[in-house]
Amino acid sequence: MSDISGATVLDVRDVGVHYGDRHALHSVTFSVRRGELIGVIGPNGAGKSTLFKAICGLVNHEGSVDVNGVHCHDRVDRMDVAYIPQRSDADLLFPITVGELVIAGRRRFRHWFQRMGPADRAAAAAALAAVKLSGYEDRSLSELSGGQLQRAYIARALTQQASVVLLDEALSGVDQPTTNELFDLFAELSQQGTTLLVATHDLALARHRFDRIIAVNGTIRGDGPADLVLAPAVLDSTFGSGVATHGGTL
């Protein structure tokens, strides 16, 4: 794992989200340090995706989100956070190349009317090299495997120079060799100081791949080392009675 400096990059305080009369999240509070690699677990509908969207400013929320010590009032304040959503067929049908996707991360550094310049193209090329996708610039997203697509989105986050990367079910549908490759990449980015939060249903994966796990179901049910958060009492609170005996994917 990374040499964590102790500097807080993400501070979430009393965050709540309502969809009409339904409380999707309430009283969510936690902080994350530079270079942490954290697993976020919980059942379907528990609020993991909603939490990530709230952190990015994609949904209205109560409470506060600070990124690198800056209190965020709107989405513009949160460009230090990159959100990589679950893969969908719509993503693959969208007519965009890998190169176009990755260089889009440089938009935060340009006015809408400015064209991308040599520095932007160099940053995109460096990001693609970092995720081992050099030479894929002209391929459409539909030509990529699941693991390659995740790498392309991570490359966009790198060109965005995001301090925090939120990956929503990034490992869903990818095989074991690809999972291993992605975790090698996660570990490398973590060592370089990027903070990553990875939502997953796979408890076995969470146990063996993350030093810290946050369990979510409407609110934070557990936060800490794997052996603490994956204890029976916390799993029952998160997933419901009887799940504590289930060691695999939920």
UniProtKB/TrEMBL annotation:
Keyword Nucleotide-binding: yes
Nucleotide-binding recorded as keyword: yes
PROSITE patterns: ABC_TRANSPORTER_2
InterPro entries: AAA+_ATPase, ABC_transporter-like_ATP-bd, Metal_Ion_Import_ABC, P-loop_NTPase
Coiled-coil annotated spans: none
Keyword tags: ATP-binding, Nucleotide-binding, Transport
Domain ABC transporter residues, every copy: 10-242
Family of this protein: Belongs to the ABC transporter superfamily.
Protein name: Unannotated protein
